[in-house]
């Protein structure tokens, strides 16, 4: 599903060149549940941005579902993002003046899906994440865990192939963290989606089947976790 | 473009900060409002003033005598002199290109004391001694009876043609035809009633004019062989200013006036006046557009500015949208449509307000010889609307480009 070869990425600030990724080779198969770990500055966010077609890379190649992702126009990458990738962010990134239902339905709006169909599907997904009764609440009326579940529903609505989650539990307490992780695990297990989670928490990483440890822009370790006792 | 989601989105954005939206729109409202009012008022001024010229032959000039300022042929300076009957033929024969040469006499002076009476009523009107041809210079419509004719002149008939105002004031409901009007002690039979086409002549209402035969005037009012002034028109295509100059030169020769005397004759050239007025109105119009467009531009800049602020405020939101699949086109369309909506609503009310005010002014009837029926024609309204559309797009351009520079990655980074 995801095929990275020799990915390099540098940021230039004035005369300084900061080499963030120094050659990443990585293969993630369809239906895998992978966590990317690393201390801050290890390049994990940059890697996630590249995986999510939010950022370009300098050298190497990135194939997503067999398609080379390189030098795309903004319009092309927007199209690929909406078809292949669902994002879940640490800070939820819901649109504050839209209610839960509208937030979930928004990606379909950009795909030109008729309004009624959007609403139906969004409601379906909200039910799946257990927030059907909250459909017409604004994000600031929801708790952190609820917000993240709305965000996951939004990520799922466009039937993506990959879910990219950037510190999805970073802003949550441990109980809600586990709820959110359960949801992501079930997405992986039941829908068969590839899920990539960036995190720095070991217990979160331990819930995934494979942990990739980044250090100084290189893959330090690639560990296959023992299947945990089926997480609860 | 016309899907309800986008509109509800726009409504959402604009209504989230109502005061700001309102103040922003006010700039554009004011711009269009001013443009419409100024154009409409300018038009009212020009219809008013040009209306008072209506009926006047534009290729006409008027020449009268004043006092000499240069001693010549034994005469001292400061001499008064009068045109005489022989001058009429002299001009007709001696000045090339003349069409109508109408000698004119006026009773008393301008705004004389009561000089006309009928029964117990008296009134003050302008009384002119005229030839029939005067109607070709100063067009007037005959409401009843007839105008003066050659036979009136030849027979020195005591007849008069009165203006509609004279009829109204002196006769009321009585049919004036055949009645006798007493003018300075002399009785004149009313043979016609006229209504001048010009609304006014330099502020004088012409419907109070009484015309009597030129020859009769000379006899009845002790001005034998006198001509107070000439009204002259040129043939088609002839420069009136040339006729004016030629006539003055001829008259100077006939009346022993120094050819270069600048003060011996007074004259008035309708064509010059007319083109001057036209130039004035064109200038007013151009000025209105310039001021209006600049005022509008200030409003547009205001909108553009606010849109920039809105885009800045919504950096995160736009980033989120980008990350869930909004194309650059989606984002551009959203910003452009928002600014267009702001501009258009504001402009629409500006247009409406401006036209409304003009209509109200028209309705309460502020009319005079210098001002009448202020209005904005459809063409101007359409032009204003397209200016609006254009400026709305222009206002959205920079903010939209700013919005495009926001990448989805920023949504991740903001926290």
Strand order of the largest sheet of chain A: 6-7-8-3-9-10
Number of domains of chain A: 1
* Helix run count of chain B: 12
What share of the residues of chain B does DSSP label as strand, in percent?
15-25%
Compute the number of strand runs of chain B.
12
Classify the beta-strand content of chain A into a percent band: 25-35%
Question: If you had to describe this structure to a student in words, what would you say it looks like?
Answer:
The complex is a heterodimer of chains A (232) and B (415). Chain A has 232 residues and is of the alpha/beta class. Chain A has a single domain, classed as 3-Layer(aba) Sandwich (Rossmann fold), CATH 3.40.50. Chain A is 35% helix and 28% strand. A six-stranded mixed beta sheet of chain A has the order 6-7-8-3-9-10, with helices on both faces. In chain A, helix 6 links the parallel strand 7 and strand 8. In chain A, helix 3 packs across helix 4, helix 4 packs across helix 5 and helix 5 runs parallel beside helix 6. The longest helix of chain A is centred in the last third of the chain and has 18 residues. The two termini of chain A are 28 Å apart. Chain B has 415 residues and is an alpha+beta fold. Chain B has three domains: 188 residues, no CATH class; 73 residues, no CATH class; 113 residues, no CATH class. Chain B is 52% helix and 16% strand. Chain B contains twelve helices and twelve strands. In chain B, strands 1, 2, 3, 4, 5, 6, 7, 8, 9, 10, 11 and 12 form a twelve-stranded mixed beta sheet that branches. In chain B, helix 2 packs antiparallel against helix 8, helix 2 crosses helix 10 and helix 8 runs parallel beside helix 11. The longest helix of chain B has 44 residues. Chain B is elongated. At the A-B interface, helix 2 and helix 3 of A face helix 1, helix 9, helix 10 and helix 12 of B.
């Amino acid at each position: 599903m995801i095929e990275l070869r020799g990915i390099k990425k540098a940021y230039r600030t004035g005369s300084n060149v900061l080499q963030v990724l120094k050659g990443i080779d990585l293969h993630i198969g369809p239906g895998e549940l992978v966590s990317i770990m690393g201390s801050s500055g290890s390049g994990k966010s940059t890697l996630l941005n590249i995986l999510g077609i939010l950022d370009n890379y300098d050298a190497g190649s990135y194939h997503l579902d067999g398609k080379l992702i390189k030098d795309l126009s903004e319009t092309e990458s927007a199209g690929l993002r909406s078809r292949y990738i669902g994002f879940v962010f640490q800070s939820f990134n819901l649109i504050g003046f839209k209610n839960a239902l509208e937030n979930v339905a928004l990606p379909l709006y950009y795909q030109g899906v008729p309004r009624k169909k959007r609403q139906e599907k969004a409601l379906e997904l909200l039910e799946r994440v257990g927030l059907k009764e909250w459909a017409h609440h604004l994000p600031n009326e929801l708790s952190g865990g609820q917000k993240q579940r709305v965000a996951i529903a939004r990520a799922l609505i466009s039937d993506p192939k990959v879910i990219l989650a950037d510190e999805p539990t970073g802003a949550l307490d441990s109980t809600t963290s586990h709820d959110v992780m359960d949801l992501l695990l079930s997405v992986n297990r039941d829908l068969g989606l590839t899920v990539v989670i960036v995190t720095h928490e070991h217990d979160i990483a331990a819930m995934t089947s494979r942990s990739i440890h980044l250090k100084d822009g290189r893959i330090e370790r690639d560990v296959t976790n023992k299947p945990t006792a089926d997480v609860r | 473009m016309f899907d309800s989601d986008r509109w509800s989105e726009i409504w959402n954005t604009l209504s989230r900060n109502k005061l700001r939206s309102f103040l922003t729109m006010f700039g554009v409202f004011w711009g269009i409002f001013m443009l419409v009012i100024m154009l409409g008022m300018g038009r009212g001024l020009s219809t008013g003033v040009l209306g008072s010229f209506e009926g006047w032959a534009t290729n006409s000039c008027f020449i009268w005598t004043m006092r000499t300022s240069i001693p010549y042929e034994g005469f001292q300076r400061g001499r008064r002199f009068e045109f005489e009957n022989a001058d009429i033929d002299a001009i007709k024969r001696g000045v090339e290109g003349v069409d109508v040469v109408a000698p004119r006499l006026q009773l008393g002076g301008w705004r004389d004391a009561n000089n006309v009476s009928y029964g117990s009523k008296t009134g003050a009107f302008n009384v002119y001694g005229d030839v029939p041809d005067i109607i070709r210079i100063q067009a007037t419509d005959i409401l009843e009876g007839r105008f003066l004719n050659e036979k009136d002149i030849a027979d020195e008939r005591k007849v008069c043609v009165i203006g509609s105002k004279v009829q109204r004031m002196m006769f009321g409901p009585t049919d004036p035809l055949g009645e006798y009007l007493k003018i300075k002690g002399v009785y004149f039979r009313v043979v016609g009633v006229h209504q001048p086409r010009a609304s006014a002549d330099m502020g004088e209402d012409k419907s109070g004019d009484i015309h009597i035969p030129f020859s009769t005037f000379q006899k009845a009012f002790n001005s034998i062989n006198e001509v107070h002034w000439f009204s002259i028109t040129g043939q088609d295509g002839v420069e009136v200013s040339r006729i004016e100059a030629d006539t003055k030169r001829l008259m100077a020769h006939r009346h022993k006036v120094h050819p270069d005397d600048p003060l011996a004759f007074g004259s008035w050239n309708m064509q010059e006046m007319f083109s001057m007025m036209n130039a004035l109105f064109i200038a007013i119009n151009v000025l209105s557009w310039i001021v209006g467009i600049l005022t509008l531009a200030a409003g547009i800049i205001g909108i553009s500015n606010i849109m920039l602020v809105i885009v800045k405020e919504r950096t995160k939101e736009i980033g989120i949208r980008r990350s869930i699949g909004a194309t650059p086109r989606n984002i551009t369309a959203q910003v452009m449509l928002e600014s267009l909506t702001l501009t258009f609503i504001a402009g629409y009310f500006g247009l409406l307000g401006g036209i409304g005010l003009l209509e109200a002014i028209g309705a309460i009837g502020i009319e005079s010889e210098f001002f009448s029926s202020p209005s904005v024609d459809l063409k101007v309204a359409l032009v204003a609307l397209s200016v609006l559309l254009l400026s709305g797009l222009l206002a959205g351009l920079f903010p939209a480009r700013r919005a495009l520079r926001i990448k989805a990655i920023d949504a991740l980074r903001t926290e």
